[in-house]
Amino acid sequence: MKMGKRISFIFLAIIALLIILPLSLLFFWSFNGKWMYPTVFPEQYTLKVLHQMISETNFFPAILNTLVIALGATIGSLLIALPAARYFAFQKKWSQRFVEILIYLPLILPTIAITTSSQILFLRFHLTGSFSGIILIHIYFCLPYAMQILLESYRKMGEGYSITAYTLGAGSLRTFRLVTWPLLRPGIITSASLVFIVSCSQYLPTFFIGGGRIVTLPLLLLPYANNGRLGIASAYSLIFLGCTIVGVFILKMMIGGMNHGRKYS
Fold it and tell me: pTM for the complete prediction?
């Protein structure tokens, strides 16, 4: 084995270990029946925690709510970010760059401050306790992630392809469908995946704007984690991880297609 391949293998092994080790701990805690110090692995395994989790009234509604809200936030963020990123990607005026900076404020300001102040506005428009209100606040927090990825994708693609298509007589819609979309597809997939994961992870915005009426997985997970109930918290973490993986896979299939990214001999 060459030195370069050996170094790459070592780095991959370290990365794999850093990923597998936390997941293994979650798995052990989820099926833990008896785990006393100083044993490395649980002495007994049980399905009691899983039965308790599944029998909870809000378990299945929380999974469905999490996926629906995240999907809505992803679609909404992309619908806003695609045209906005195209506009800002090639602007050089300071005034327009300043507006671009304002989009990243949700990443800078404290989440609790934005959420509590936004709650007053949502109350006036009767959006609290509704899916539409939660999706809107999620879009607000997820939009900077979508914008950053799509901005770089547009700048990397440049304007030449679109200008050539316009010169050859293609309209705006046809240019986007046949030229822009295929070239931006990797960036769109990455943007959609990241937005979906960020939306699934939102706790404070969902709690405040949802008013406790709409329950998602983070709302079920965090109380158990804060109270030290590691078994059921770990089980919910595994369910949360599975939902995000399935959701991201579905998004990739919807945007990229089943054969996107495959190599054929």
Answer: 0.85
230-250 pLDDT, tens digit each: 888 899 999 999 999 999 999
pLDDT, tens digit, for every residue of 49-62? 888 888 889 999 99
Tell me the residue type at 36.
M
